[in-house]
UniProtKB/TrEMBL annotation:
This is Uncharacterized protein. It comes from the Bacteria. It comes from Thiorhodovibrio frisius. The lineage of its organism: Bacteria, Pseudomonadati, Pseudomonadota, Gammaproteobacteria, Chromatiales.
Length: 86
């Protein structure tokens, strides 16, 4: 699609403490095939690299897809761009 960019962000799922193959499968089937689910320290996360026309659209569609899988998003995390030193 025209004018689309890849955006990277992480969704933290609410009320889920450990990733299972059933959760991963449900996320994949619901449209999160561009996300990498994982769990650590009692949190389940999905790292996305989603192509969209804006960051807002990328996040909104990812949250929608997580909801279709039957889960809620607790929060969104974005990594700050890092400066490279010479």
């Amino acid at each position: 699609m025209a004018n689309e960019t890849k955006y990277e962000f992480t969704l933290i799922l609410a009320g889920v403490t450990e990733l299972s193959s059933q959760i991963a499968d449900a996320l994949f089937v619901s449209g999160c095939d561009d996300g990498s689910p994982g769990s650590c320290g009692g949190q389940v996360t999905v790292d996305f690299c989603r192509q969209a026309t804006s960051l807002e659209t990328a996040i909104r569609t990812a949250v929608r897809d997580v909801s279709k899988a039957g889960f809620r998003v607790e929060r969104v995390e974005l990594e700050s761009p890092q400066l490279l030193s010479a």
